[in-house]
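Work Package 4 report. The design task specified in the project plan requires that, given a folded chain encoded as structure tokens, an amino acid be chosen for each position. We show below one input record used in the internal validation round.
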């Protein structure tokens, strides 16, 4: 297949692959081959791509929207492991001989994802050492992030963790000093705590004039002050 005779759908898929850092070292031939195998899916808020103890044969890539990876504690509290934005990858369990998932993957907004299947990813890893290194690097980064998250939960106070979370979300999803679409309950679930505890800390931040609170809107007034709280 050449540029002149590819379909609009394949051309769009090829463009998307080129924007994802995981694939930016692929040769044009490999990228074009993979583009013919990319499938897209659009789902509403609250859709679960997979749940614990299920097996899925797909590696997912967020094209538009936000996806949350989380676990449930024994008392049914949701513990968020990651909030994924455009271009992020999830479902890496397919690389471990199709092991069962240990987490939930839920859409926080209307989400469009790309899907690639186990055999296609494995084919690339077998025939492209540079791509294999990229995949291993991605997996290592995800493991390091999870370990750091667990360390912070053991060592840091809730206000410090909340300040760090607000900074993280703002740098990924924020715009012009505003972070939209997050409720006190959703923030509580991300930190594995209770809504009332989050509300108290947010009100403290507001009294310190670090943030401002409106309905489903958090205004970030002082990033430096949030950074200092997050470092405590």
């Amino acid at each position: 297949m050449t540029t002149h005779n590819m379909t609009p759908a394949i051309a769009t898929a090829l463009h998307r692959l080129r924007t994802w850092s995981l694939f930016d070292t692929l040769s044009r031939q490999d990228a074009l081959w993979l583009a013919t195998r990319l499938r897209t899916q659009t789902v509403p808020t609250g859709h679960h791509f997979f749940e614990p103890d299920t097996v899925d044969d797909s590696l997912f890539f967020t094209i538009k929207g936000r996806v949350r990876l989380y676990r449930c504690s024994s008392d049914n509290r949701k513990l968020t492991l990651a909030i994924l934005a455009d271009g992020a990858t999830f479902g890496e369990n397919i690389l471990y001989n199709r092991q069962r998932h240990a987490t939930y993957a839920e859409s926080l907004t209307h989400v469009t994802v790309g899907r690639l299947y186990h055999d296609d990813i494995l084919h690339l890893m077998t025939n492209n050492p540079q791509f294999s290194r990229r995949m291993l690097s991605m997996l290592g980064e995800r493991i390091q992030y999870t370990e750091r998250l667990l360390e912070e939960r053991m060592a840091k106070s809730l206000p410090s963790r909340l300040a760090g979370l607000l900074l993280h979300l703002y740098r990924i999803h924020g715009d012009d000093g505003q972070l939209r679409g997050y409720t006190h309950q959703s923030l509580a679930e991300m930190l594995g705590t209770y809504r009332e505890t989050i509300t108290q800390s947010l009100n403290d931040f507001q009294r310190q004039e670090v943030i401002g609170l409106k309905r489903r809107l958090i205004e970030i007034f002082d990033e430096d002050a949030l950074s200092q709280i997050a470092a405590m």
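The chain has a mean pLDDT of 86. Validation will be extended to a larger panel in the next phase.
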